[in-house]
Amino acid sequence: MRHKAFELNNNKDLTTAVAPSTVANRQRGWQMKYIASFSAGKDSTCMILKLLELKYPLDEILFYSTGIDFSCIDFNSKKMEALAKANNIRFTWIEPDKPFLWYMLEKPVKKANGEMSYGYGFCGGCHRFGTGLKREALHRQYQKYGDEPIVEYIGYAADEYDRWIKARQKRDGNRIKVFPLIELGISEAEALAFCHENGWYWRIRPEDENSMELYSPGALRRISCKYCSNKGLDEMRFVFHEMKDVWNELRELQSRIPWKFRKNASIFDLEERFKREDSLPKQETLL
Ligand code: SF4
Q1: What is the CATH class of 4-215?
Q2: pTM exceeds 0.85
Q3: Which of 64, 70, 128 to mutate to test the pocket of ligand 1 (most atoms within 8 A of CB)?
Q4: Ligand 1 test: best mutation among 126, 230, 239, most atoms within 8 Å of CB?
Q5: Is ligand 1 within 6 A of the CB of residue 121?
Q6: Which of 20, 113, 121, 247 yields a CA-CA distance of 20 to 30 A from 85?
Q7: pLDDT tens across 207-254, in order?
Q8: Could you state, in order of their start, the residue ranges of all structural domains in the chain?
Q9: What's the 3-state SS for the chain?
C-alpha cells in the first residue's frame, strides 16, 4: 500500500530526497548542526539506523528520558548511546527539571478555592503535563545552541501523514525539520521490521531473548511512559497479566494519588475487573 506522504515525494534515495540542502550545505562548509530526536521507540531507532547506513550528516542524538520509561526503552537508549559513541556522534540525555514522580506526587498545586494539593496525579488525556515537561526540556537544550541553524531529524513514519502535516506547519526558530522515514516511504510496520532485522527489540525483559516483544499483537500499541493513563483497556489488561512489576508500581502510585487512573476506574477497579475476567470461561471479557 502506498502512503499519502510517500506519494508526495516518491524517492528512495535519502541523499537527494531528504532536505537536499543538508549534504550540500556541509560540503559548502556552512555551519549547521544535524540533530536527531530519539525516543528509543521503533520509528526513531529505524531513522537513526538509516541515517548511519546512508552516511547522512549527524552531529548529535537527543534523547529525552522521562524517568518513568519501560526497561526496554532504558536498555535501547543505552544501546544507541554506545552506537553513537562508536560513530563519533554526540549522544545527549535530556531530563525534566525535576523528577517526573515529583510532578505526579509532590508538586504543590493551589486549587481554585485557595487550598493546596500535592502532585498532578497520573499523566494522560487532557491532563498531559508530561508533554509540557518534555517541550520545556527540549527548549532549554535548543537554547544552548544559540543562533546556529539546526537540521532536526524527526522519526515520523510514512503512514503518520496527519502528524507530519502538523509538524511541518510549525515553525521552531532556526530549526529545519527533516523527516527521513517519510521521504524514504517507510511505514511504522516497515520501521519495526527493519529494527528487528538489525537486532533491535523491545522486550519485557530486554536481555532475555525469550521474553515477549512489546510491539507485538496483543501487547502495547505504543511504548509510551510506564504510567501513562492513555493506555487502552486491552493494553492495561496486558500490563496486568504480563508485567507484574509495573502493575505493582501502578498500585503503589494509585494508593498515593487521590484521583482515579482512568476517568471511571482506579488501578484497583481495573485489577478487580481483570481478576473477574480471569474467572470467566476463556475468551470472555467484561465489555
Ligand atoms: S506518554 Fe503519557 S505519561 Fe508520558 S508524557 Fe505522554 S501523556 Fe504523559
Answers
A1: alpha beta
A2: yes
A3: 128
A4: 230
A5: no
A6: 20
A7: 999 999 999 999 999 999 999 999 999 999 999 999 999 999 999 999
A8: 4-215, 231-287
A9: CCCHHHHHCCCCCHHHHCCCHHHHHHHCCCCCEEEEEECCCHHHHHHHHHHHHCCCCCCEEEEECCCCCCHHHHHHHHHHHHHHHHCCCEEEEECCCCCHHHHHHCCEEECCCCCEEECCCCCECCECHHHHHHHHHHHHHHHCCCCCCEEEECCCCCCCHHHHHHHHHCCCCCEEEECHHHHHCCCHHHHHHHHHHCCCCCECCCCCCCCCECCCCCCCCCCCCCCCCCCCHHHHHHHHHHCHHHHHHHHHHHHHCCCCCECCECHHHHHHHHHHHHHCCCCCCCC
